[in-house]
Amino acid sequence: MILFLTILSAAALMLGLALLFTITLSVAKIRLHVETDPRIERINDILPGANCGGCGAAGCSSFARSVVEGKMPADGCPVGGPDISALIADIMGIELSAGHPLRPVVRCQARASDRLGRAAYNSIDTCAEANVVPGLQACTYGCLGFGDCVVACRYDAIRMVDGLPVVDYQKCTNCGACSRACPRNMIARVPFSQAGMYAVACNNHDPGRAMKSICKVGCIACGACVKAVADLFEVKANLAEVNYDDYDKADAAPAGEKCPTKVILTFGDGQNQA
Predict the structure, then answer these.
(1) What pLDDT is attached to residue 200?
(2) What is the pLDDT of residues 40-49, one digit of tens each?
(3) In three state form, how does the secondary structure of the chain look?
(4) Which domains does the chain have, with CATH numbers?
(5) N or C, which end of the chain is more exposed by having fewer CB within 10 Å?
(6) What pLDDT, in 10s, does the model give residues 105-126?
């Protein structure tokens, strides 16, 4: 009888504790509940779901929350493009400001045979590894050629040709993964106001004389582009730069024609690096 009462008391105690825990959790759920803005789920539902990080957020759900919280713009999804941006703006009840998509431009045109002073390191597999090896390549600004950008691209929009990445703009979603993967920051993101855009395919800031000793096709900061189209080009830190804010006000073609090393190239839809 005593054993039975002991078991019964223990069972009652366990049941009471379970009931107490249930009540406590229910109260905590009610008191700690945070209302979720329904717009977050609506935006997340229309996003591509690529979770590429091209917007700067950890993923699509994080981007949706950031938009609703005002931390990111409605047109911040590079993969979704204008159509998705318009839907997000409609959900948020705002109007989008005019802008141009940022597309990748490889700021190097030195293929394997153009690079001078390059050592052979057979044990290196990635650009990230090669970038910290001293003396691997005379040009410390140019492409290392191991293809980290190719690996980073989830859309098969970039490939290596003779040691140099080439973008397929028909496949490119403008996610920016290739730019982030490049340890030398030589894949720039350029505002494309037109289908085909001129860009300086060089990232080297060495003086012209030094440039000639390390690469056959780099910018030598001669200023010929500035003389040809002064409104669009300038030379800063030994490197020609394009003023994209005024791109639609001048014709960049003469600069490409006058460039002695032919480092000013066209990039854009339907074509790879020219």
Answers:
(1) 96
(2) 999 999 998 8
(3) CHHHHHHHHHHHHHHHHHHHHHHHHHHHHHHHCCCCCHHHHHHHHHCCCCCCCCCCCCCHHHHHHHHHCCCCCCCCCCCCHHHHHHHHHHHHCCCCCCCCCEEEEECCCCCHHHECCECCCCCCCCHHHHCCCCCCECCCCCCCCCCHHHHHCCCCCEEEECCEEEECCCCCCCCCHHHHHCCCCCEEEEECCCCEEEEECCCCCCCHHHHHHHECCCCCCCCHHHHHCCCCEEEECCEEEECHHHHHHCCCHHHHHHCCCCCEEEEECCECCC
(4) 38-92 (1.10.15.40), 102-268 (3.30.70.20)
(5) N
(6) 999 999 888 888 888 777 889 9
